[in-house]
Amino acid sequence: MLNAALRTVILSAADNRQVRRVVSRHGMRLGGSRFVAGETMDDSVRALRELNAKGLYANTTLLGEAVRDEAEARAVADEYIVLVDRLASEGLRANVALKLTHLGLELGEELAYENLRRIVDRGSFIRIDMEQSPFVDATLRLYRRLRDDGVDNVGTVLQAYLYRTEQDLAALLPLQPNLRLVKGAYLEPPAVAYPKKADVDTAYVRLLETMLRAGGYTAIATHDETIIDHAIRFADEHSVPHDTFEFQMLYGVRPQLQLDLAARGYKVLVATPYGPEWYPYLMRRLGERPANALFLLRNLARR
Ligand code: FDA
Question: Ligand 1: which of 288, 292, 294, 295 to mutate, judged by most atoms within 8 Å of the beta carbon?
Fold first, then answer.
């Protein structure tokens, strides 16, 4: 209850101009680098290499969300093309996850599709992240359009907090999709998403069981140990092949759990973002766990 209230305060404060100015200037040095690989592609590649050396898989994301114009959206896609080619040429066990608003979705669905298609056509696996609820329809439409065009090296994300997700999942299952299941990171109104964490957790488990049984590929993206243990037990009891699912966690969150699961033989992928526009991403991570915000504030007070 207290955590939910703090989360709302932190996510609302994230939009305050003064908070944004202070955190943007000092946040990386004061603790943000725990969650973000750095500001450049070289920083990202270095972090991915280190994760691979520890037996972990990784994905990377150029941080950033809405773009101002078509040229900016195309420039983002150009950087992603350089990135996917670099991951392939360096032989990294890493793929890319991206946001459609960063590729221009708010300027036009066709623009976002063109940019996405240019990246996907390089041949590497690309995951389309899920953003706020007004973007869910368009995101699922573009995912389906790629699959209808015969593009298979692509996956997307479903959020357990949305009431609609059960139906979205049912509609996607005939495609044998590659889906990442998350609880959901944005502040959504009770009209579209479960306000209570317990309901989100229950929905997560229900969706997860459906996915694991359905025969597509499931990325179990959570740090919730109860759910992770349940997933392992459920997969064993229902003979779900181990090459049809993986665990995913965020860079800097529960690193020991990541290593423990990998040591037990499970595939673990660490989502490792980079880029100069790290502010909204960092604020979402702080909102998920008020202790992270306190950690950053303490560092700020020590200066
Ligand atoms: P929960 O919030 O219940 O946390 C369980 C435990 O994990 C906590 O008790 C704590 O120990 C630890 N923990 C969780 N978050 C932490 C943090 N920030 N710092 C420290 N400890 C933390 N969302 C979305 O809407 N669209 C998306 O595309 C994605 N993509 C995505 C990819 C990957 C790989 C992950 C892991 C997550 C996402 N998310 C996301 C975010 C997701 O929706 C959710 O907000 C976070 O994963 C936190 O929820 P948990 O499932 O970890 O559970």
Answer: 288
